[in-house]
Amino acid sequence: MNSAGKLVIVGAGPSGLAAALEATKNANDVVVFERSSHLGGLSRTIGFEDCLFDIGPHRFFTKNAEVNQLFNEILGNDQIRVKRLTRILYKDKYFNYPITPLNALLGLGVFNSIAIFVSYAFARVKALTFPSQLKNFEEWVTGQFGSRLYRIFFKTYTEKVWGIPCTEISDQWASQRIKNLNLREAIVRALFGSPKKVIKTLIDEFGYPRMGSGQFYHKMASIIESNGGEVRLNSPVERICHQDQVVKSIVVKNNNEEQIITGDFFLCSAPLTEIMEMLEPAPPSSVLEASRALRYRDHIGVQLKMRNINFSDNWIYIHSPEVKMARLANYRNFSPSMADKDDISPMTAEYFTFKDDAVWSLSDDQLIELAIKEISKMGLAQLDQFVSGFVIRSEKAYPVIDQNSILYVEIIR
Ligand SMILES: Cc1cc2nc3c(=O)[nH]c(=O)nc-3n(C[C@H](O)[C@H](O)[C@H](O)COP(=O)(O)OP(=O)(O)OC[C@H]3O[C@@H](n4cnc5c(N)ncnc54)[C@H](O)[C@@H]3O)c2cc1C
Question: Considering 36, 78, 329, 377, which has the largest number of Cβ atoms within 10 A of its Cβ?
Answer without folding.
Answer: 329
